[in-house]
Write a structure and sequence with these properties.
alpha+beta, four-stranded antiparallel β-sheet, three-stranded mixed β-sheet, 17% strand, globular, binds zinc ion
Length: 326
Amino acid sequence: MVCNDFSVFSRSWLRLVAIPALFTCAVPAHARGKQPAWPNQLRIEMQRLADVGWQVRMAAGTLCPAQSNGIGASFDYIAAYSPAMRAAVMGATGMGDLPQVAAVAKGSPADIAGLRPGDEIQTIDGRPVSAMIAGSAQPALFADELEMFLSQGVPGSRVALTVRRNGASLALDVQGRGICSTQILYKFESGVDAYADAGRNRVAVTSGMISFNDDDGALAMVVAHELGHIIRLDGKAGSIGERRRMEDRADMIGGALARCAGYDLDRAAEFYRHYNRSDWLRWFRDPSHRSMTNRAERVLLTPEGVACPLTAADLTTLVAAAEAKR
Ligand SMILES: [Zn+2]
């Protein structure tokens, strides 16, 4: 999980604001006072993001900038939380002094190998995780560091894990799988936001965005749109017109990715309709985006000849279609 480390991310593509890095979390307003207890609510959100992120990354195939050895597990680590919150988190999740598996994507290598949420990672290929933590420059971000470390092998290679479960040690052999290398990170924040950082090859989705989208198809559309930006290596646009073209392409690529990931595109388009209903003034505040109704219609379009899995030729077709529909 990620707290407030996304200093390179802008809340708006038109403004690049450097936010000082803060490495501890505050409880998002939406998580306060909810049932189940908020640490468990976060785990439910992380599980949804793990499932959706895995499916969308699989659908992206080789279109991403690189392939990694994916296992499909997300982690949590106590140093990510402020000292005042730690007792509540430990009590609710059973987390101790080792990183804990927060979510395992359905059907992923970690799932097949028997890794389960709640497992604490003791060793990786014989290397003690405690030594890795001791060597970490940012222990608060160790969970994401761990996920990245585990995916660094040659795609398809095995990773030997020792985990602690119910007080006993258990050895698990995970057969990784070649997958789009982009990290899909959970950001502990109440704002309804998602971000793509092509330079660091990662997407972040806020807890507010996940709870806003109670349908997985809609959440898939958000993740797939951001992955569309990564695939295109989009950065800061030089003008509003350029930004809109980037958004149009990301919508078109995202729609195809969400469909190829097995999600109902009509449900995926629901994100835009829902967003439109909840925030009709957004258009005035953010002129780089089209009206949400217009965007909902666009993601439902499937250009002629595009099939799953998507190929580089399909990507060219999608980009051309995004330009043609302007
Ligand atoms: Zn976008």
